[in-house]
Amino acid sequence: MIAFNTMAKEVVMPEEFTTGNSEKGSELVATCVACHGQNGIGLNSDWPNLAGQNQKYLYDQLKYFQSGQRENVLMASVTDYLKILTDEDIQNIAAFYAEKNSNIGAAKNDEELLALGSQLYKAGDFKRGIPSCSACHSIYGQGNDQAGFPAINGQQKGYLISTLKAYRSGERNAGEYSKVMQSVSMNLTDRDIEALANYMHGLYQ
User: Fold this and answer.
1) What percent of the chain has pLDDT over 90?
2) Would you say residue 9 has pLDDT above 80?
3) Residue 130: beta bridge partners?
4) Which of 20, 43, 88, 127 has the most other CB atoms within 10 Å of its CB?
5) pLDDT over 70 at 15, yes or no
6) Could you tell me the CA-to-CA distances from 169 to 22, 86, 197 in Å, in that order?
7) Rounded Cα distance, 77 and 81, in Å
């Protein structure tokens, strides 16, 4: 918990984010549909939902992919396309997906798993140095638009698991906020991650 708070203080909060034009963005997402669907809902549990995600987070991640700071096997097929896009284009794509209705998932009805996921998400585990997820992602998982903390409610379970493991291992390291997530996840066990992914997948307001 202390490590998280110390690291979080080192991250400079962003200035107000410039929003994009969703109508223009709709003309730029043809290459995204194969994995993320017509409306931004991942077609596979391992592929993230983009619908309803905040614009700043989407913009930042696309910029990381564009610059090569963030790498992913599946995203490699669209990297060349991203490289020809302007910053405004990427803002418009982010706006397009942000305006879509987010997904409502269904958590696995496992009492023990749900209890662990709920505990870690809402309160963390002080003794193990695990902060609460809700501090940044909000109690219902909507995230924080201005800071660019992503919405995680209803997110695909497989994607949540692989993402937390990637932060834990240090594999995912693009951007300043990745340092916070690496600190947050370093003490999570595989069981913790499974429980959190299940709980977050079923979160909604």
Assistant:
1) 89
2) no
3) 125
4) 20
5) no
6) 35, 32, 17
7) 8
